[in-house]
């Protein structure tokens, strides 16, 4: 018995029980080692004309014996001598593959794709095996040698037999562990079943560049006997056939011109378990200090759990065609969590288990490029296929808005131009840039109204009054919309017609354009304003003057109405912008009525600490109802003023989609008035 050339027992225990978190990756590691061995032989044949190898015969074979509880991974690669076995398997953390890569770094090119780096992947076999036997014959050697160990103290190396060059790694799979005291046991039988092994190969090693073959059981119909009657029932028999399990060449490493849309769609649907074709595909190859391939898909529909806490974002991360992480969350920002796809790079620095990453800097560089490509593709869809983009936005737009809100507006520059909102004037979805381009001269803000229903919002008095003045209003109906606008504060519209400070400058610019000059443009910051706030400043000077005079003249009336309403409102005032409606509710401060409603539906609603809006009851001094209020005040009829104040306040709330605090009292007041 030879001893491992390290603190063997401690280090092996670390290898088997600590480094790897998922037992099933042992097969990935063994197939990767086999691929490296085949690659080494292939490389030698390309660099040494005296070595003749038929590349079509290079392969990896996986087989199992359920009765003997053995699993074998075989290759016809470079093989190992006794010295190689001693050096590579007797010395933990010595990587023959890494050594080979360093020795041939200047000559490899694209003809070799060595995977191994750390020299520990082989030992992952002991997570599932009670004994490992390695039979290897080096290329050009007549003798084979056998390395054997139970993974505890040491190993033996003896002469053996193997028909040709290559290596067999034979695992004696552990016995199942029964559960105790209600705790589940552990089954190792998956590693001794055809379907279990095929699943692991397809999941982790599907794109290893050499065929991974297995004998699989298939069924076929027996020949019909000559003497069979008309009532003959077909009989079937099972038979064994050698099958290549893996796909080998990954679709993301092929040129886009060599892959059809149908092939991309089929890969997407089968890999990411969707039954619809993707809306968009993005494929690119990056070179430089960090080389990688990426294949990204934008789905046609949102998965049912997209907005649940259990949803996991991320791209599949491969290194040299071997799956490292099924969902690498660091490759996608949260607002692009719907994107699915693959990133494959041999340059990323992995940790020793190849299950997680060692350097975040490389991931950040890839993630930044991925984000830019997704943004670019979405902009292209928005501009070239508006119908498809609106469908996309209906499915995933909420996440883009939340990306701005959750970043406190820091991502507004990247995401604002991807947002769509309903235009009350155009009766269609528009971008903020399209809204700004259609603004009349002199408009200095983007106006919006927030609620839960587009039809109701379009009929609100405050919305109608803004529309009547020639300004469009965006109707926001998603719960995150107004929070997003609050985080943005404003929108910078690009290439807007330049505004001039005085008539002389305006006339000079007009003359220059008449003489053939290009019209001057500028980037203009537009504030985002809720039409339900009291600071719109849309009234004309005459309207402001009339409102101010009415406020002074009927100061006592407003005071009496404020007393009647109590702390329901901050004040009662004359509106300078209402046209048809008798009254409306506006707010002061950052919290709007719609935001208050959204917060009231949240998990903190019952905590008693919810913020409240500062409500203002605005009256239309030119409406007949106002005359009734003035008459009641002049008659000293305080009860009627209380009745009218309550009715006007409650009906203004109903217009906002808010139920009165006491619906029964409201109904009684209406009956009393009738």
TrEMBL record:
Xref: Gene3D superfamilies: 3.30.230.80, 3.40.50.11260, Heat shock protein 90, C-terminal domain, Histidine kinase-like ATPase, C-terminal domain
Residue positions binding ATP: 29, 33, 75, 80, 88, 95-96, 117-122, 167, 354
Region of interest (A), ranges: 1-354
Keywords for the protein's UniProt record, in alphabetical order: ATP-binding, Chaperone, Cytoplasm, Nucleotide-binding, Stress response
SUPFAM superfamilies for the chain: ATPase domain of HSP90 chaperone/DNA topoisomerase II/histidine kinase (SSF55874), HSP90 C-terminal domain (SSF110942), Ribosomal protein S5 domain 2-like (SSF54211)
A GO molecular-function annotation: ATP binding
Domain of life of the source: Bacteria
Intracellular or extracellular location(s): Cytoplasm
GO CC terms of this entry: cytoplasm
InterPro entries: HATPase_C_sf, HATPase_dom, Heat_shock_protein_90_CS, HSP90_C, Hsp90_fam, Hsp90_N, Ribosomal_Su5_D2-typ_SF
Region called C, residue ranges: 598-674
Residue ranges annotated for the Histidine kinase/HSP90-like ATPase domain, each copy included: 22-177
Oligomeric and partner information: Homodimer.
Family indicated by similarity: Belongs to the heat shock protein 90 family.
Protein purpose: Molecular chaperone. Has ATPase activity.
Protein name listed in UniProt: Chaperone protein HtpG
Gene that encodes the chain: htpG
């Amino acid at each position: 018995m030879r001893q491992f050339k390290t603190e063997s027992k401690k280090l092996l225990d670390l290898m088997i029980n600590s480094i790897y978190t998922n037992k099933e990756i042992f097969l990935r590691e063994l197939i990767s080692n086999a691929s490296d061995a085949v690659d080494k032989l292939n490389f030698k044949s390309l660099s040494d004309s005296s070595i003749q190898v038929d590349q079509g015969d290079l392969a990896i074979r996986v087989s199992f014996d359920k009765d003997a509880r053995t699993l074998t991974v075989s290759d016809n690669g470079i093989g190992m001598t006794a010295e190689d076995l001693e050096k590579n398997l007797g010395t933990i953390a010595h990587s023959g593959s890494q050594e080979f890569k360093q020795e041939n770094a200047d000559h490899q090119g694209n003809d070799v794709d060595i995977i191994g780096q750390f020299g520990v992947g082989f030992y992952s076999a002991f997570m599932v095996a009670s004994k490992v036997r390695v039979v290897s014959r080096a290329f050009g050697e007549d003798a084979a040698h056998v390395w054997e160990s139970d993974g505890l103290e040491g190993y033996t190396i003896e002469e053996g037999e193997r028909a040709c060059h290559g290596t067999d790694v034979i695992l004696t799979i552990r016995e199942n562990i029964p559960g105790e005291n209600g705790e589940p046991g552990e089954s190792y039988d998956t590693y001794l079943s055809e379907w279990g092994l095929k699943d692991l190969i397809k999941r982790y090693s599907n794109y290893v560049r050499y065929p991974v073959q297995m004998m699989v059981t298939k069924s076929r119909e027996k020949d019909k006997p000559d003497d069979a009657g008309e009532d003959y029932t077909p009989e079937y028999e099972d038979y064994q056939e050698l099958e290549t399990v893996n796909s080998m060449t990954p679709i993301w490493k092929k040129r886009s011109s060599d892959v059809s849309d149908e092939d991309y769609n089929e890969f997407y649907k089968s890999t990411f378990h969707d039954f619809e074709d993707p809306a968009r595909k993005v494929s690119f190859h990056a070179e430089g200090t960090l080389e990688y391939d990426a294949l990204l898909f934008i789905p046609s529909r949102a998965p049912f759990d997209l907005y649940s806490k259990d949803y996991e974002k991320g791209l599949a991360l491969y290194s040299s065609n071997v799956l490292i992480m099924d969902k690498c969350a660091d490759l996608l920002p949260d607002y692009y969590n719907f994107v699915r796809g693959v990133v494959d790079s041999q340059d990323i620095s992995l940790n020793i288990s190849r299950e997680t990453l060692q350097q975040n800097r490389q991931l950040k560089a890839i993630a930044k490029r991925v984000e830019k490509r997704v943004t670019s593709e979405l902009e292209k869809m928005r501009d070239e296929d508006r119908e498809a983009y609106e469908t996309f936005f209906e499915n995933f737009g909420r996440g883009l808005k939340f990306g701005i809100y959750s970043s406190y507006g820091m991502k507004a520059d990247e995401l604002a131009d991807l947002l769509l909102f309903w235009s009350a004037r155009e009766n269609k979805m528009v971008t903020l840039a399209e809204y700004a381009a259609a603004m009349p001269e002199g408009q200095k803000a983007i106006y919006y109204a927030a609620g839960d229903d587009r039809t109701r919002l379009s009929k609100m008095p405050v919305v109608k009054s803004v529309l009547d003045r020639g300004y469009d209003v965006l109707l926001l109906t998603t719960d995150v919309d107004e929070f997003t606008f609050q985080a943005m504060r404003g929108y910078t519209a690009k290439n807007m017609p330049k505004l001039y400070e005085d008539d002389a400058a305006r006339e000079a610019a007009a003359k220059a354009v008449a003489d053939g000059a290009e019209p001057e443009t500028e980037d203009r910051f537009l504030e985002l304003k809720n039409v339900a706030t009291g600071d719109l400043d849309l009234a004309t000077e005459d309207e402001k003057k009339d409102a101010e005079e009415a406020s002074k003249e009927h100061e006592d009336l407003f005071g009496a109405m404020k007393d009647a309403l109590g702390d329901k409102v901050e004040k009662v005032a004359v509106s300078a912008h209402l046209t048809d409606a008798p009254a409306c509710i506006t707010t002061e401060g950052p919290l709007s009525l719609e935001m208050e409603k959204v917060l009231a539906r949240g998990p903190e609603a019952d905590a008693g600490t919810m913020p409240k809006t500062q409500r203002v009851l605005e009256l239309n001094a030119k409406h007949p109802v106002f005359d009734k209020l003035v008459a009641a005040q002049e008659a000293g009829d305080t009860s009627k003023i209380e009745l009218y104040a309550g009715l006007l306040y409650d009906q203004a709330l109903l217009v906002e989609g808010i139920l009165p605090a006491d619906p029964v009292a409201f109904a009684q007041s209406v009956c009393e008035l009738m």
